[in-house]
Specification:
Blueprint (H helix, E strand, L loop, with lengths): L23 E14 L5 E10 L8 E10 L2 H18 L15 E8 L9 E8 L8 H13 L29
Antiparallel strand pairs: 1-2, 1-4, 2-3, 4-5
């Protein structure tokens, strides 16, 4: 036995635990991000860790994986639309590194996904994004980006490869690079 003095009145109670978040909208921010190959070998995903910012659930973590490159065009399109929704919500028009998503408050829509396998518990999924307070933090960037998008031909427009402009900074964004 070891003598050890500890008074619970001097330690703040922990708000985070591993219970599921109830379905609903939460204020959160991205704290970690990465580009990973899918285990299936069918593409690449942007992995995001969100930390809840609001009282009652503060510091709780929720994860999202957006399959931004996928052999299934519909899966890829859905993920890219979700990424755009996140970017629009925090005022990003063009992203060159996922770190640009970090530490910017956003509303995330969380749902509870029921597990079909009794071996696994139910889990949370992030299914939507919207700006905190109803308007993007960088509203001017959004307006400028919308004007720029309107002036830029769609990706499926026929453009000679030599005439295609490189991405900002002269490099291809990480999620658009093909795996070697």
């Amino acid at each position: 036995m070891a003598q050890f003095n500890f008074d619970t009145n001097t330690v703040e109670k922990r708000e985070s635990n591993f219970d599921l978040l109830p379905a609903g909208w939460y204020t959160a921010q991205v704290t970690e991000s990465d580009i990973v190959a899918l285990k299936s070998g069918n593409g690449r995903a942007v992995k995001l860790t969100f930390e809840i910012l609001q009282d009652g659930y503060r510091n709780r973590k929720v994860w999202a994986q957006l399959n931004v490159q996928h052999t299934n065009p519909q899966a890829e399109q859905i993920a890219q639309q979700q990424l755009r929704e996140l970017c629009d919500s925090i005022g990003i028009v063009r992203m060159n590194d996922t770190v640009e998503l970090h530490n910017k408050p956003v509303q995330i829509k969380v749902k509870v996904r029921k597990s079909d396998n009794p071996q696994y518990e139910d889990s949370n999924d992030i299914t939507g994004f919207k700006p905190v307070g109803g308007s993007p933090v960088h509203g001017q960037a959004i307006a400028a980006g919308m004007a720029q998008r309107a002036a830029t031909p769609p990706a499926n427009a026929s453009v000679a490869p030599a005439a295609a402009a490189p991405a900002a900074g002269g490099s291809t964004p990480p999620w658009a690079k093909k795996a070697a």
